[in-house]
Amino acid sequence: MKTPFLTVCMSTLLVGSAFAQIPADMPRPDPGLWQMQTSIVQMGGMGMSYRVCIGDDVDDLLMQPEEDVECRDLSYRRDGNRLIYNATCDADGSEAKVEGVFTGDVRRSYQGNITTTFTPPLEGIARTDMTLEAQWVGACAPGQQAGDVIIDGMPGLPGMGEIDLEAIMKQLEQMQRR
């Protein structure tokens, strides 16, 4: 079964919203350059590796959702060394229920398992199960600004929010048909 690119991107965006809205009394990722790796079970473990420059504002952790993605019913709780995150989001005409379980010190490294259930299915996908590993690398590179993303194997992408994901998705679908 193919997992459409937009669904994968949407799952990643929803995960970014988890750390962008951490309550003030919980640990937050340190500013600097972070190496992140994601993989999606429904894609046979295929994933993405990228580096992102995080500023003092954790909103830079991952690119922010499109204007038509809104989350509500956000909740966080601690269970021992785990941070558990739940949210309900409206994403591209679908309701996405997100549950994430994160471990690690969060300031310098963390791991997570994130399950997102889409109702109705988003582009035919009812559920994604993603793993995420993040490691603080050090200071952002000279000239790099908060929010700049470098996807491994691609040139730097400042202003990541300017990428047209739908155009990329259409190109990928055309490539898969060849």
TrEMBL record:
Keyword annotations from UniProtKB, A to Z: Signal
Name of the protein in question: DUF3617 family protein
Highest taxon, organism lineage: Bacteria
InterPro entries: DUF3617 (IPR022061)
Signal sequence, start to end: 1-20
Pfam families per the UniProt record, alphabetical: DUF3617 (PF12276)
